Each structure stands twice: as C-alpha cells, then as structure tokens.
Fold these 4 entries.
Entry 1:
Amino acid sequence: MPVLKLLGGLRRFGGGQQQVSGKTVRDVLGRLPAQVLFPEGGLNRDLEVLVNGRNISFLAGLETALAPDDRVTIFLHGARGYPGG
C-alpha cells in the first residue's frame, strides 16, 4: 500500500506516516477534508503534493497512478507568506 506523509500544519489530519489505499493521488487525497484540499474547486495552491519526491504537477497531476511502494508527501509550501494570504 502507498504511504501518506503529512507535514507541518497538515499533521492535525493524521501526522506521521500512514499506509493508505488508493490507485491515484486523487484517491489518497480523498482521505483529507475537502475544504483544505479543494477550497475553490481545484487543488489548493498552497499545497505541495509529491510522489516519491516528485511534484505531481510534473507527473499526471491528481491522476498520477500509485504503486504499492510509493510515498505521497503533502505539505503547505508557504511561499506566498501565510497560507491563504
């Protein structure tokens, strides 16, 4: 099963590493509150989602396929200052 790791402020939704089921990144993200991930219909622009260290925007986005040994890491990048600011 893929491993999901939430960093920073997202740890409140299940910090540390946890094994999750899902065939795509979208399936795995479905475990988290929608208002955090998709506040305006699309993926929150303050989030970075990595699969095995590679940003999903350079892969197949939310439809990136996951293998059983993949690692999905999600964190708030905060490059714009305070998230949402």
Entry 2:
Amino acid sequence: MSRVSLDRVVLGAKPGGEGEHQSVYEIEKVNPTTSFSRTSNFNDVLALADAWDPERAVTKVKTSHAAVNGMLNDLTKASWLMGVHAEAAYPADQIEKYTLFHNPTEGGRADFLESVKDNRGSTTPLAEHLAAVLLDVQQRGEPVKWVVHSQGGIIFKQAVAHHLKHYPNHSLNKNSVVFHAGGNNKKKTNDLLGRAGIRKETEDNDNPFDMVPNLAGRNDLSLSSVKRSLQFAGKVMGSEGSSPTESPHTLPFISFEAYHGFLVMAKDYKSAARVQQYMDKHTAK
C-alpha cells in the first residue's frame, strides 16, 4: 500500500496549521488526570490542550484506538481534541495512546470544498490514504477501534466506498468505528459499513442543535432541525473568547443536561432556555 508506506520526507508537521502534511501520528496522553466530563469547567477544558502530545509520525496503526479529525484542526488541536473524543467514544477503555490519522487544514474554504467532494462521492487523496490504512489494519489482523469527528466522518465514509470499489469482496471487519458529529449521511454510511463488515461500536453521537450532521450530512432537514441548526450556527463556527463547551459540535456530546449546564456556565441564558425547551418537549413523553 503506497499511501501507507509514506515517504519519510513528508513525515512530520509544518508549524502553523496551513501547509501541514496529511500523515499518521501516535498521540500519547501525558496528563492522565485530565479529562472532559459533565462537571468540567472552563479551566478544565483549557487544560485538555496540554493533556495529549504527538509522540511521533508513523507509517502504520499499531495502537488499539485510532481517530480522524475534522476540518480547521492543526496537528496540535487535532491531537488533544481527538484524544478527548476517543475517551468519550470508549469510556470503558483506558486509552494511554492512540493513532491520529491527521486531516490537515488548508483553510476554511479549502477544507469545505474537500468535504463537499468526498460527500458527493468524488474521492479525495485523504480518503484514498485512509482506505489504504484501513486495509493495512485488516491485513495486520489486530482490531482497531476508530472514532471520527465532523469532516472525519465524511472522509471515513468515502474511504470505505473507495475500498469497496476496488476490493468489493475484501472485508474490513478488523476495523470498528464511532461517529461523533459526522458530516456524513448516516443512511449511505451504514450501507457502506455493512458491506465492508465494519461494526459501529455505538450509535452516532450528535447534538440535535449541531448543523453539521443535521444539514451538511442531510440527516435531518425538517423545519425544526433547520431552525435549531441556524440558531446555533454561530456557536459551531466559534467566536473569539468563547469556550468550546458552548459549541454543540466541537467537544463530545455528553447529554442535554451537561450541554445546558455549559451554556449556563457561559451565561448564555437564551441558548440554555432553547435547550431546556427541547429537553422538556422530548422527555415529557
């Protein structure tokens, strides 16, 4: 697999986000006491950035857990953020190290166009590379549990489609996956995963106020979903000085109660009231 046997020249990151190479890294948890939970405060979340460290670039997945990050993530952010998502996806596992399939950022417009291309079925080099990594996992024979976030869900979906196009009878059942806030269409993805033998470890973990799975993934285009998504779109995009706990997209969705609490903590009582109204409506049955 030529995409797995990476040229040593491109192993490693360039500073500054834009211009980083797509590559694969082993990420180590360097602060085992730091985690994200329903009781986390702003300082706890800030500490997450120092809890995970890119140990080295690698050519193969040798850890039992792996991840694919979303758009606008440089290597530093992707390393800690996907560590947080891995722990949330597999809470019973003591994850001390995982492998990051790094989806480098080329800027908002380029990342968006890349997502559109994969979502429409035109395979990008990223998806081709990931398809080779998934096949290499299969050939090595050691199971790997993946978590994919945001654009990572789109890349993973298209990587499986690319594999099936070229190896329609070759299972990928040594790989399993959890989708967090994926921009992929669930119906299409589930069909592809079933054909490839890839098991979902849990159901998709999406916040109903998140525009990415709702609108970008075309999973819920109802009027109420569009309204919710647009009301919280600014939080998905983020603003200077805001905490990622306010976003329905960035950090793992723990529960409605936890998200409501984060909004109250941020003193965004209007958004908190909207979440409470949704909770009251959907738990009153």
Entry 3:
Amino acid sequence: MEPFPLHVDDAVLADLKARLRNTRWPVPAPGEPWSQGTDLGYLRDLLAYWADGFDWRAQERELNRFHHYRTELDGVAVHFVHERATGGGGLPLILTHGWPSTFLEMLSLVPILTGRGFDVVVPSLPGYGFSARPARTGVHTRYVAGLWHRLMRELGYERYGAHGTDFGSAVTTYLALDHPAALVGIHLSNLDIPPYTGPGSRPLSPAEQAYVSRNAEWGRAEGGYREVQATKPQSLGYGLTDSPAGLAAWILEKWRSWSDSGGDLNARFGCEFLLTTVTLYWVTGTITTSMRDYYDNRWTREPLRPDDFVGVPTGVAAFDNYFVDEGAAPREWAERLYNVVRWTTMPRGGHFAAVEEPGLLADDLTSFFHRLD
C-alpha cells in the first residue's frame, strides 16, 4: 500500500490539446437540441474551453489535497482515497461510484463526513481512472465486493459501513450479502440490482407494476448505450479512446440525462468538474475498461437466488428527481431484497447525488450510520 500522488505527463496533455483542436465535427442533428444526443453547439463551446482554457494542473493540485494510495488486491492495482475522521477513531465508511463517473464524484462528501466522525475510503472501480482491470471476463460487481472487503481489512477495519450508487450500489449490496458480519449497515442512493420476482415471490404491487412498466419504456427510449456496452464495448471503445470529442459527448450526455439538471449541465455541475471527470477517463485511457462493467455484469454474474436477502440494516436515499431506470423505485420493491430501516425521499437531486446534493446525502448518511453505530 503506497502513497499515489496524481500526476499526468506533459506529453499526454499536449496530445489531448492537439486532438481537441483537430476535431472533425458532424453536421448538426435536426430537431430539438439534445434530442438525438449531445448538442453540437454545446460540445463545440466546451471543447474550445477544454483546449485553451481548462487548467488540468490546477485540478490536479486540488485532487492531491486528498490522500491517494494504490495497493494490489488479487493481483489488481486499486487506487483509493483514504481520509480519517477529524477527531480520530471514526466509523469506517467505504463509498463506491458508478458509471460514467469516477472517484471524483464522492470527494464532495469527504470533508463533511470526516468532520462528522467517519473514516472515509473512496476507491476507483477496477478499470476506471487509476485502478487497473484484470485482462479477463468475470470482473463483475460481486467480484469487486470481495476486493473492497479485502481493502477494508488491509486498512485495519474489522467492521465498517458502505455506501454506493449505480454499479457502486451493486458492489455495496454484495458486500452485505457476502460479508454481513463485517457490515454495520449499507446505504444506497439508487437501486442497481433488481430483486427476485420469479416463482414463489409475492405478486407485484400496483406501484411496482408501474415501476417495471416505466423501466421498459425508458429502456426503449434511452437504453441503447447499455445494449452496446453490454454486447460490443470493444468496438465502441476504439472511437472513444481515440477521440476526446467522442468521449466527452458519450459521457456528458448521460450526466445531463440522468441528473436533476433541468437540461443545463454547466449550471448544475460547472465546466471544471465536468472536464475533470472526462479528463480522468482520457488521461488514463480507461473508457473501454469501464464499459466492460456492462458486459461482465450481464453475462458473467450469477442472478440472485430466491432466498437471497440483505439482512444488514439498509438505508435508501431516494434521489428520484429525474427519469432513469434505477430511480423512483417504490419502497416495497427495495424491501424484497433489503432490510430497509431508513427510506428518505429527497426533494431534489438525481443519479449523481454525491456531487449534485452532497449536503442532503451527507446528512442522510450521518443520520443513518450514527443511529447504527
């Protein structure tokens, strides 16, 4: 386990700027802006700033205010941030991001939580940013949960809490299923794993039926990315790895669609945050390995069994102010799989809750875990 200050070579940044300035643009899409994907005018303006205004070194300095480390787990080099509670002796809490995000999403929570008595660990998922991904299939969220449990043990934590969103929600769920004695509790800001609803399960409630129907409708309208990434991520990866314009367009359309942004990305997140997120994918060359999460979790992860149930106390912060498949689930849907002891319907915020509404999320995390500790 070694300190790992972040630093990107000058040559990588120079190559990025050259590619940005030589972008080959498509014609504008007809119809309403964003209706067929990332708006051309928005992306042109953003890439002009990325090439000639954005200061990666300033962002790098800010990121290095946190304590970064890398360690090897099961032969995998894993990057993580580790910050201890301000007063010492904090409750350990591991926070896991999803796609198309990075560890950066969780950093807004860190100073709040360390000031409230938590030791905070924020790892990068395998194949994202500065974490490597094994060169094989089967790197699904249940496998990652095993890595995270080993990481917390290596840090000296016998019992700990966990929070996650998107794929991080699935990782957190499997931590509780596979290592229940180690988990004080788990907290989720969305539900990534559908519960078992096959033979022998109770009938769906009207609210659950509406949720399933809404998911199917969303999949027809918005789910193309998922089908490509779960079937042919390598083919897509060539273009996104070679073109920063393509990479930004692919990632930021999801940040706009899945967040409570009102359609205004820059006002909600700011150019600096958005470009830091995309730059992390670019300089590490990890967009293709990140997309393999969709392939591995569809084809190599075993489905839940009828008797699978998370007995660990579970808190859910329902950030439902957007229209996406994982959001807006009714509580009874969650209670099929989880021992839900806290359910908070949030007044605002979407898929990227940790950066959209860090105060609301930190308050819910604090109330939930302090009740259990």
Entry 4:
Amino acid sequence: MKVGIESSLLFKPRTGVGQYAYKLTEAVSKIDSPIKFEVVRHYLPFRRFTPPIPPSSHLTYRIVRWFPPAVYFQVFKRLGRFLPYDLVALRNYDAFLFFNFVMFNLRKKTAGIVAIHDLSYIHFPDYVQRKNLLYLRRFVPKSIIESRHVIAVSDFTKKDILKNFEISASKISVVPNAVDHKHYYPRPANEVNRLRKKFDLPTKYILFVGTLEPRKNIVGILEAYAELKPELKSDYALVLAGGKGWNDESIGQKIAQLQANQERIILPGYVTDEDLPVLYSGASLFVFPSFYEGFGIPPLEAMACGVPLITSDNSSLPEVVGDAAIKIKADATDDLSRQIAAVLTDQKLAASLRAKGLTQARKFSWEKSAEQLIAVLEKLA
C-alpha cells in the first residue's frame, strides 16, 4: 500500500497541529509495515531542500518541480477548484493523507483521509481570523463529507464531528496526539538554570505555553494572577510562552496594564522544541484554562515533565488529563486564582499532582498513535 502525505505542516516553525503531523509521520516511518509513505513537497526555487524527517525504507519524498506551489495554494484555493493532488504529484497512491483540516481533490481511485483537530471555527468563530474562518467554513465540511475516512485527535473531537455532520461513526477513527517521552521528561537542575539565564527567568514561576489568543483564556490567567496575595506574587512570576495570536488586542492591553502596576509578567515569545521541556521542568505550576481544545498538547507535555497542572473541565481536556490535574470552569477566574494559591502553598498537593501527571502522560506515545494510524490505513487497503 502506498500513502501520500501533504507536507505543508512538516516544516518549522510548527504549532500544535504541525507537531501532530511531524511526530506522527516520523513515528510511522519507523514501524515495519507493508505501507510505504511518500511526502509530497513542491520545489521552491533557490532554496535547498532538507528532509524534515530522514528518509527510510518506509518514508520517501516526492519533489514536485513542474507545478509552482503559489499557483496551487493561492489561485486554486481562492477558486475552490483544486487539481487532483495526486495528479499534481504525478504519482499513483492508494490513499492520501492531509493533516491540516482540509482535503484537496484527488482522483476517484485514491482514498482521501483528512485529520480534524477541532471544530473551534464552529463553536468560537469570533476567535478565528475572518479570512481563515471563511476558508474553514467553505472547505472543512466538504473535506469531512467527501473524504474516505476522517482522523480525529480525541474522542471528544470525534463526538463533536458526529454532532455537527451527518456521517457514520464508522468513518471516523481516533488517532490521538501524544508526547515524545525521550524529549519531554523532568530535566535536571543544571539544564533549568541554564535556561533561566537564557530567558532571564526568576527561580519560581507559573507557566502557560501556547499561542497568545483569546480562545486560550490568557486574560483569565492574567486576572487570576493579579488576584493572588502580594507575598505569592513576590515569590512567583507569571511566564506566558508562545507567539502572538490573532485578535490579541485585549491580551496586550491587560499585560501592559499589569506590568504598569509592577506585576511580574514575563513574555519569552516562541520557545523552541529544544528549550520547551526545560521551561516546563523549571515551572512550579502549569495553567491551561482554555475555553475549548480539540486535544490540548501543552497539558500533556507539562505532565510528562512533572509539573503540577490546573486546566479547564471542558472539551477534550478531561480526556487528556484524567485525574492528574485540578479542573476548573474556564470562566471562573476567582476559582483559578484560589487553586493556583492552593498548589503553590501545599507541597503535598503539588507532589500528588506531579506523580499523577507523570503516570497519565505515559498513556500517550507517538508509537501507539502511529500503530493506530497504520491500522486505519490497512482497513482501507
């Protein structure tokens, strides 16, 4: 069986969806199976091509030289009329995998598979950039209906798809996000100290990791931190690690207001994959009170690094964290502040959360997810 992979998410910088595409592709390339994967990449003039994942007996690359990517990804997207992507690649595939919500047209003999990470554009349209919202509204339903099979990243996302689209449950398989346990684990003090010097971080800090956008409830985190007693805030800074998101004006205003009041809000920006596990490991507490998540990778990474966790009780998050986190209502800022104080002042509670988190995180691995994906593909053969 030969399976093509659309490659746009495999290259840096990678957000959560990109990490899913990269880690899953990397994992399936190492599993001995009858399936051969081929990553399709458009040739970019004057740029040296470096495979993001080393080629193997199960993973090869197809460089499309005759068809400029700007033509395909701009003109055809706007027209809504894609050339069959397997035809663009000049290859025959049994199936073609699209990790980024939208499936391009394929020839009828090729089974199209699309990964759906969440339906936030339906539930929280105000949190999605208008240009992207129009694109998702136009092409996600079409992709779900016309694909041969749908991959959901959580049981919650599968149920959400079934609620919103008239398709059979048998058409959807769950292949969850995971964590690389060789990379995300509690790091020693010398590594943490080096990172503190690099980012000029204090010894103790509360951490959030993710895009700084309204859906992540950044304003709620800031308000909860501001409500802490002065002695706690003097001991613990708040670190918000991540790139700027769309519609973040209210977030920027709140940060500026609190910093003007001498609150210790630290913004290291986007943190590389190499530094991220160390940043987690140095944190006294990780907070992730998001309004909605199709999966929620940062809480899983935090648990794998042995950090106590507070998160929301909505969407997929209870499924990810199990009983290893304190779960609150996303809009309950007062409760978030109380729970932050409880973890920071109760060593037994913090230790219990760390231990439970490490156990919960071990339930998720890219090897397991890769085996689930291969099982789905073999059923389509």
